[in-house]
Amino acid sequence: MIGAKDRRATWRLLLTFVLAVICLGGTASAEPAKWIVRPSESKISFSGTHAGRAFTGEFRTWTADIRFDPKDLKGSKAVVLVNLASASTGDQTYDKTLPTVDWFDVGKFAEARFETATFAALGSNQFEAQGTLSLRGLNADVLLKFTFEEQGTTAKLSGETTLQRLAFGIGKGSDAPGDWVSLDIPVSVSLVMDKAP
32-195 domain in CATH 2.40.128.110? Predict the structure, then answer.
């Protein structure tokens, strides 16, 4: 027969095991903070040159699902969907050309999608995100370097990358050599976000 002393020891062991499982389960299920973008204070913009003249533009409609924690880069994730028809440069000629078949081809490809695969810390508040951009039915790896500044429940994210437009077939039919429109298109991201409750 098991004595009272042995039973107490057994119960203590079981209780310790159960508490350990609960703690480990809680740690495993924790996720990085979800951030809600403030659209009126955030922007995704692009730039380049046309016939030697600089131009800038932005996408007016897009969504971002961001879950980011500088202390949990492995668990962090971001997915950004951009409405290509919302591209605007303020120049009528450019704005009429961008949606056409040889450029964004918005009739066939309504949106672009960027999804992160990994994050890395570069020191201080600087990071980089490696991900895949899907645009016009083509995929390419993209490296976005950014700063992330968090103050309480608010955060600011500013990042930059450069896209090669021919990697997505943009302007391939009318200007593959880049004689008129620059082959490299810088893209910048500026976000103001609130931590979800």
Answer: yes
